Amino acid sequence: MRNLILSAVLAGASLFGVTAHAADIEAGKQYVELSSPVPVSKPGKIEVVELFWYGCPHCYQFEPTLNPWVEKLPEDVNFVRIPALFGGVWNAHGQLFLTLESMKVEHKLHSAVFRAIHQEGRKLSTPDEMADFLVTQGVDRDAFLKAFNSFGVKSQMEKAKKLAMAYQINGVPVMIVNGKYRFDITSSGGPEQTLQVADHLIGKERATQ
Q1: Residue-wise pLDDT tens digits, 151-187
Q2: Does a cis peptide bond (omega within 30 degrees of 0) precede residue 173?
Q3: In sequence order, which residues have a C-beta less than 8 Å from that of residue 207 and are 6 or more positions away?
Q4: Which UniProt keywords apply (predicted)?
Q5: Within 13 Å and on the Cβ side, how many CA atoms surround 80?
Q6: How many domains does the chain have?
Q7: pLDDT score, position 141
Q8: Residue-level pLDDT at 77
Q9: In a domain, 14, yes or no
Q10: Burial call 163-196: b when 16+ CB within 10 Å, e when fewer
Q11: Domain range holding 75?
């Protein structure tokens, strides 16, 4: 946990660091090429993954930059959010995300959950705290608690843990393009530069198809 917090601090310290110019983007600098590519969830599409934690302040600060970019992604790109599960409240928040996703309301409530934690001071660390908050957002309490403890959500938790291990991540936010390239705010030089790296790698993958 200490290393994860340190990673977040370092990420914040470099928010306005070195700008990533397309001509200068290369493996070993702004991104790492994984030794063993990870299969994508939708073959035939270029996958962009963001691993995050609702409790991470830098994930929250990344949202206003990331979301408009995601909305403009072309049809051949599939964007996927995956919660990082490093134990404790990380797992609780990850289970919250996966539950909302299973209920098909995550897209409506993702930003609201972030705001509740970072602006309203809610911990949302237990199912009851989560349910109390979600009721204010129009979510049925019993339906949420049933989904939260469902086999399907628990299966998705195990899948998320395995993917994080395969991506070899040790902090958040971090992005993966097409199961091959890993990069983050620190390596890229800032939030906007991170998306420049993503665009570069999307183009790189598109050229090979």
Answers
A1: 999 999 999 999 999 999 999 999 999 999 999 999 9
A2: yes
A3: none
A4: Disulfide bond, Periplasm, Redox-active center, Signal
A5: 18
A6: 1
A7: 98
A8: 98
A9: no
A10: bbeebebebbbbbbbbbbbbbbbbbbbbbebbbb
A11: 32-207
